[in-house]
Amino acid sequence: MNICLFPGTFDPVTLGHTDIIDRALPLFDKLVI
Predict the structure, then answer these.
(1) pLDDT tens-place string over residues 9-25
(2) DSSP label at 26?
(3) Residue 22 — φ and ψ, nearest 5°?
(4) Which residues contact 10 (CB under 8 A, 6 or more apart)?
(5) Among residues 9, 2, 7, which one has the least CA distance to residue 30?
(6) Quick one: CA torsion of 2, 4, 20, 8, rounded to 10 degrees?
């Protein structure tokens, strides 16, 4: 199982953050934000 940890404050959440999340989702079994 591949798990990705994406730490950060995300205040505010930007389009860059959501772009990275969208790109990571197909690469890992689990994405922890």
Answers:
(1) 999 999 999 999 999 99
(2) T
(3) -60, -40
(4) 17, 33
(5) 2
(6) 180
Strands (E), 1-33: 3-5, 30-32
Q: In this structure, what token pair is assigned to residue 32?
A: 């922890």
In angstroms, rounded to a whole number, what is the distance separating the alpha carbons of residues 22 and 5? Answer: 14
Amino acid at site 2: N
Contacts 24+ apart (CB under 8 A), 17-21: none
The reported pTM is: 0.82
What six digits make up the tokens of 17?
């953050």
Looking up tokens 């922890």 gives 32
